[in-house]
Amino acid sequence: MTQWHAVTRVRDLEGRKRAAVTVEGTTLALFWIKGKVYALADTCIHEQRQLSKGAILFGKIVCPGHQWKFDPETGEAEGQDGRCAPTYPVQVTEDGTVLVSLEQVEAVG
Ligand code: FES
């Protein structure tokens, strides 16, 4: 059974569009993109910079390290032979609480 963790509120994400949260020792990067919340591993798969300090550009997450662009839904890094950042399930409750699970979503591709 999926274990969900309350990590923030949507209204707190809407302003900055990104946040780092730690759940049971795992740090996740949360993003608010086009009205939806996404969770990825905060540590970049390239050289370990923090994705939560990156930018959002045309719906993609841009790592502050070397500007790899990640699809927020799948975690796939554009132009990197299908390499993917781990992504995590997210739910938003009716009162705007953001819940995440540490059960990684299987990478596609
Ligand atoms: S550390 Fe993220 S692109 Fe290099």
UniProtKB/TrEMBL annotation:
Is the keyword Iron assigned to this protein? yes
Give the highest taxon in the source lineage.
Bacteria
One family from Pfam that matches here is Rieske
Where exactly are the transmembrane stretches of this chain?
none
Please tell me whether the keyword Iron is annotated for this protein. Answer: yes
For this protein, the record's SUPFAM superfamilies field holds: ISP domain
Which family is this protein grouped under? Belongs to the bacterial ring-hydroxylating dioxygenase ferredoxin component family.
The protein in question is named Rieske (2Fe-2S) protein
Q: Which organism is it from?
A: Nocardioides agariphilus
